[in-house]
Design goal:
Shape: elongated
Radius of gyration: 19 Å
CATH superfamily of the largest domain: Response regulator
CATH topology of the largest domain: Rossmann fold
Strand order of the largest sheet: 2-1-3-4-5
CATH class of the largest domain: Alpha Beta
Strand content: 15-25%
Order of helices and strands: EHEHEHEHEHEEEHEHHEEH
Distance between the termini: 32 Å
Number of domains: 2
Largest sheet: 5 strands, parallel
Length: 259
């Protein structure tokens, strides 16, 4: 379980939704819950707001008349690690996957209850606040010595060979789980349970998307440390192989098949 959200009053939420009724309703519910709300009706206004204010989270409608929510989410990911919740009337799996590809943390399919959105916002912020601790992933700092990927759970930071990795919360959680137990295979369902402990309708393909993004951020050499075990799931390379790979002495291409 995650700890309770300590203080909503200091949390700034950006809402970008072109439907006046929905935007006002969501703003009212989140305000009553103690959040500080900035509401805009267009993508361009959302981008301007992001330049002026440091938000703790963004709630973005995908279908807006100018810049859509996916483009804004991608822009946010270029500069920030704040969580992003997408609102969409598109319930197809490919549409949800596209949201994860650009770095969204979660999504809600319209129509939805405003209370559900408030609950989802609080859950996302609980997962991503700096002092959050998932009890199913204890002592992240106690990973194998000299492992080339370094994880710091308390600060939610990661690095590979001394270079910082700009990971989203979901990407960090997956990489932390894998590197905590090198060589152990995690199924997609197990990784989904770590990402969404409260459950939901997230598709298994979401894990593949997050893995793909992690590998891209690790670069060509680091990506080899995140291995696909076909038909089962994913694992991190064992510590001895990982150290040799990081030093360039023992390529792992025979040991894995990246998707």
């Amino acid at each position: 379980m995650y700890p309770e959200l300590s203080d909503t009053k200091n949390k700034k939420i950006l809402i970008a939704e072109d439907d006046d009724n929905i935007r006002n309703l969501l703003g009212s519910y989140l305000s009553v819950s103690g959040f500080e709300i900035t509401s805009v009706a267009t993508g361009s206004a959302a981008l301007k707001a992001l330049q002026r204010t440091k938000f703790d989270m963004a709630v973005l409608d995908i279908m807006m008349p100018d810049n859509n929510g996916l483009d804004i989410c991608a822009t946010i990911r270029e500069h920030h690690n704040m969580p992003v919740l997408l609102l969409t009337a598109l319930g197809e799996e490919r549409d949800r996957i596209r949201g994860f590809e650009v770095g969204a943390d979660d999504y809600l399919v319209k129509p939805f209850s405003p209370r559900e959105l408030v609950a989802r916002v609080k859950a996302i912020l609980r997962r991503t606040q700096p002092d959050a601790c998932n009890t199913s992933l204890p002592n992240m700092q106690n990973m194998p010595a000299n492992y080339p990927i370094k994880m710091d759970w308390e600060c939610k930071s990661a690095s590979f060979r001394g270079h910082d990795l700009e990971l989203t919360h979901h990407e960090f959680t997956i990489l932390a789980a894998l590197t905590k137990r090198p060589g152990i295979v995690f199924s997609r369902d197990e990784l989904l349970d770590l990402l969404y402990p409260a459950g939901g309708s997230v598709v298994q393909k979401a894990v593949d998307v997050h893995i793909h993004n992690v590998r891209n951020k690790l670069g060509a050499e680091g990506a080899k440390l995140v291995q696909t075990v076909r038909g089962f799931g994913y694992r991190a390379a064992k510590a001895d192989l990982a150290r040799k790979e990081a030093s360039g002495k023992n390529p792992l291409h025979k040991d894995l098949s990246n998707e």
